[in-house]
Amino acid sequence: MKFKKKKEEEVAPGLIGAADAKRPIVKIGIAFMYAIVILICVFCLFPPLWILLSSFKDVKEFFSIPPTIIPKTFHPEKLIEVWRQLDFFKYYANTFIMAFGDLAFCLIINGLCGYVLSRLKPKGYKLIFALILWSMMMPTSTSMVPLFMTFLDFPGLGNLSNTYLPMWIMAGANPFNVLLFKSFFDSIPMPYIEAARIDGCTNLGIFAKIIMPLSKPIIMVVSIFSFTASWDNFLWPYLVLKNTSLYTVSVKLFTMQSVSGISMDLQVVAILFAIIPPAILFIFFQKHIMAGFTLSGVKG
Asked: Which residue ranges of the chain lie beneath pLDDT 70?
């Protein structure tokens, strides 16, 4: 009895108490909310589920009226046919190269910026932090043309078209990730940093040996956000990459309509290949993704 009582005391009170939950009007409200959530889940899951099932249909069934949800005949060989015909391995490799470059620039540059604003606090850091926050409110359309012109003649590097450097540079200048890093670094106890300074560790050494090892949760969250954003990035790769051998998956999906011999059902199979990596990422790291929405609300 004591054990049960202790367990009951540890449970935090919710929005609806145990007594209120027994009331008929509250039960109806809870059932209504569950119905809305289930309906939203159905609407969200139907498109990828339809793509998955439609990728196994033949051409006649794909255009049949009325349309079928469950395929009458399965053609898994279409997956291999599209993979070989469109050479998807090359576009997968290109996308992963761009995504891992984005990830490296994001963690190193944004992490260092958050570390400087959180712990080093140089003169004028408040103004710099305010400018970073203000940049989040700037419309994207106002900066696209100046950025594109800059990448065509980048100082010291020249023309960066047909390279992944523009996407990597933009990933390293993400104000939202800087805010996440700074907010998390603010929670790291100062005695750890002071002890490292007494031992003669430099500021860069403190960042690499103290700050980053203690910041695995935020590193995981930012890594997931960075990878998914890179995989879905279409506009900038489409503008910068003119060489077809450098195309990413998203750009290839847009341009494959002009390729002769690619029917609509095979294009659906290609779309399936595009959504598989983000889906796998969400399945295995959904806890960290949900934690990211919590971390994005911490104070700066």
From this structure: 1-21, 258-261, 288-300
